[in-house]
Specification:
Helix content is 40%, strand content 5%.
Length: 78
């Protein structure tokens, strides 16, 4: 899986956060897949974190913050 946002050092946009579970699920469903490699496009960074340049647009209301937090949260196992 390639994080492809090299102009922003592969900062993860909301669209990217939303795509991650779908991409990983497709790999998990494929019996031919034995390993998943995560990489960043370009040669400057793997992933620099969240794309904060989108925060004004994607986190400007309480509902948007809740949606963003749900999408970008990492599920934990107990």
């Amino acid at each position: 899986m390639v994080f492809n946002n090299p102009d922003r050092r592969n900062a993860v946009s909301l669209d990217m956060w939303e795509a991650i579970p779908r991409v990983l699920a497709s790999f998990t469903a494929d019996p031919e897949v034995r390993a998943i490699v995560l990489t960043g496009a370009g040669d400057k960074a793997f992933v620099s974190g969240a794309d904060i340049s989108q925060f004004e647009k994607t986190r400007s209301s309480a509902d948007q913050v809740q949606h963003y937090d749900e999408v970008a949260s990492v599920p934990t196992r107990r």
